[in-house]
Amino acid sequence: MRIKSTFALFILSALLATIGANPAFAHENDSTKVDLNTASKKKLQKVLGLDAHKATLIIAEREEDGYFDSVDDLAYVMDGDVFVFDAESIGELEKYVTAQKLEKNLLDKWGKKHLKKPKVREELKLHARRMARLHRLKDIAEAEEAEKAQARIEKLIKKEQARHEKKMEKLKNR
Predict the structure, then answer these.
(1) In the structure, what pLDDT confidence band is assigned to residue 155 with cuts at 50, 70 and 90?
(2) Which burial class, exposed, middle or buried, applies to 54 when counting CB atoms under 10 A from its CB (0-12, 13-18, 19+)?
(3) Which of 90, 106, 87 lies closest to 98, judged by CA?
(4) Residue ranges per domain, the chain?
(5) Is the Cα dihedral 43, 45, 50, 51 positive or negative?
(6) Which of 18, 101, 124, 156 is the one with CA 20 to 30 A from 111?
């Protein structure tokens, strides 16, 4: 009987060590959530414990289809013909991510009526794709420690934000 208790204790401590080493579990008590609509590949990997490939797929989905409306939209992330996240993994990730922050900011800034216009939704998707690409380039420049490239990309990000603001104001006044 004593051998079984010792063995069970050994298995339990190994399991707890494994859970503690997993980044996804390590951030469970963290009060800040990662925004799927703005997070870089590095942040998705670090905070969520995702591998580089899954983080890239999330960014590609955001780039292709625009902003995530909710965390449940992770269900649409695909790798070829295979869905990457199932309901259980999305439920686990929901503790660490959000997608509502952006929608609330947009509602506060532009108003619900304005955001329902098809041209406005089109512009938001275009802006999301452009920003995702620029942030991906910025991540690459940072990884390669290319300071000139980083500075140039920062200028392009500001230019895109200014273009977007101008376009949204124009659409609002129509």
Answers:
(1) very high
(2) buried
(3) 90
(4) 111-172
(5) positive
(6) 156
